[in-house]
Write a structure and sequence with these properties.
The structure holds 2 protein chains of 2 kinds. By secondary structure, chain A is of the alpha+beta class. Chain A has 3 helices and 9 strands. In chain A, a hairpin with a 3-residue loop joins strand 5 and strand 6. In chain B, 32% of the residues are buried. Classes of the chains: A alpha+beta, B alpha+beta.
């Protein structure tokens, strides 16, 4: 038990010295030994206001389900990066990856295969603008409230599926819950629209995605 | 000049990485207390009759606490134009920048934080952005990074993907851009560039091959400074693609988008 405490203490000390805490303390004690020549009338400010930790960037990962029109529902995983411009607007770049299933036609006919294994892989990226529509507090139970925001989001991007890159529009909405000031939990629903011509005629497909994710502000 | 700009960038990146590491350490439950004790903070004194503290960084969050005149509050972090503050009693809440401007620093000077403004935009060194538009009939999505060599001249690296009906192209180009009035909110610019266009015909077409050609282009555009670190940008470029066929290909490109600088 004691050795575990010791390890914990050592880790804390190591972390403190890594973050530069130790250095500051050393300087402080050196200064404290010497009496000041002139007693300053004003207290010195500790840091420059420009050095206040600014956290406008958000980075994180997500996982969920993606329904690809005619090609079944599969698990999707991805990453997102956002920059908050104002309290209302943010821009986001995201990318995701999924596998798709054979169409019903392929399953029923038995032998006919529309796509090769590698063509079945579905990947996308997009750049979007979001608007925090309903910022506020959400209560979970009687006593616990989290900051939350319902946002609308939409943008453009590319989807690689069935052997080609396809220009893709996306729009949807999401819920951002902040259990801590720098940690957010997201739940998103997104529609990805692109034209697909592999099933005989060209048509606009709607590919719905629902995912949950975690992001860090930094 | 370039070395000072590079060192500014490394400082920017290093600061963020260091803070992220501290946070991850805290997140893992390690050195939570030491990280908190270590954090340096900036303090201000409330000058208004009161300072409203909200539960979150936005107008939609409720006011839950009020700091009184003369009370000393500690600034913890900033998100967009909101600051998280802590009062001596320990309550933590968010205050907008315009309210903090009416507080005093410990040196008696009004609190003033350099909010990004037009002057910072004029002196920007690095800029990144994303644009969307039309590249000879195809949808084009571009991202770029720019480095300001002088207030007028900048070097830009562009990565674009054009998604058309019959083919997709990936374009990499290096541009040199001259801004005519870099100190104005609306600033037109002209540019020249060269790069490589890689064209990949659609898989549903038969008997086609991928090809890679060099290309040169000239263009003109307009930057408009919006707010904080945010810039709107629209431009036109005319490409000549040096193909291996008899004729060179000419492509016109229009696009618009947003960028931010640091």
């Amino acid at each position: 038990m004691e050795s575990r405490l010791l390890v914990l203490l050592l880790t804390a000390v190591a972390a403190a010295s890594l973050t530069g805490c130790g250095r500051h303390r050393a300087i402080e004690t050196a200064d404290a030994d010497r009496p000041p020549v002139i007693e300053p009338e004003l207290e010195r400010r500790q840091i420059d206001p420009a050095d206040i930790d600014t956290e406008d960037f958000e980075v994180g990962v997500f996982a969920g389900q993606l329904s690809v029109e005619d090609f079944g529902v599969s698990t999707v995983v991805g990453a997102r990066f956002a920059y908050h411009i104002t309290e209302a607007f943010f821009v986001e770049a995201a990318g995701g990856k999924s596998d798709t299933e054979p169409t019903s036609f392929e399953r029923l006919s038995g032998a006919a295969q529309l796509l090769t294994e590698s063509e079945r892989e579905y990947s996308y990226y997009n750049v979007s603008i979001g608007y925090n529509l309903l910022p506020g507090e959400s209560f979970i139970g009687r006593n616990r409230a989290f900051n939350s925001s319902l946002y609308l989001i939409g943008g453009v991007g590319n989807t690689r599926f069935a052997g080609d890159d396809r220009f893709t529009l996306n729009f949807g909405m999401g819920l951002r819950l902040l259990p801590l000031d720098w940690l957010a939990v997201h739940a998103d629903v997104r529609d990805h629209l692109f034209d697909l011509d592999i099933l005989g005629h060209e048509k606009t497909t709607h590919n719905l995605e629902a995912h949950v994710g975690v992001t860090f502000f930094f | 000049m370039i070395s000072t700009r590079l060192s500014q960038l490394t400082r920017f990146v290093r600061g963020r990485v260091a803070r992220a590491i501290v946070r991850v350490a805290a997140c893992a439950g390690l050195a939570l207390a030491s990280a908190a004790a270590c954090a340096e903070t900036y303090q201000v004194v409330v000058e208004d009759p009161y300072l409203e503290m909200r539960t979150g960084p936005g107008r939609g969050y409720p006011v839950f606490h009020v700091a009184e005149r003369g009370e000393r509050v500690e600034l913890i972090r900033r998100r967009t134009d909101w600051f998280q503050v802590r009062v001596p009693r320990g309550d933590v809440g968010w205050v907008p920048l315009e309210q903090l401007r009416r507080t005093l620093g410990l040196d008696g000077e009004p609190f003033d934080v350099p909010a990004y403004e037009l002057a910072d935009y004029t002196e920007r060194r690095w800029e990144v952005g994303a644009l969307y538009g039309d590249f000879g009939g195809a949808n084009v999505i571009s991202v770029y990074g720019a480095f300001g060599m002088t207030p007028n001249l900048s070097l830009e690296l562009w990565l674009s993907q054009a998604l058309g009906r019959f083919s997709d192209s990936k374009i990499v180009s290096l541009d040199i851009v001259h801004e005519l009035f870099p100190d104005k909110r609306f600033s037109p610019y002209i540019g020249l560039g060269a790069g490589v266009v890689k064209t990949d015909p659609k898989a549903t077409l038969v008997a086609t091959t991928d090809r890679s050609d060099t290309a040169a282009h000239a263009g003109a555009g307009l930057r408009a400074y919006l707010t904080r670190r945010f810039v709107f940008r629209a431009e036109y470029k005319s490409y000549v693609v040096f193909t291996s066929r008899d004729d060179n290909e000419e492509i016109r490109e229009w696009k618009a988008g947003f960028s931010f600088f640091f």
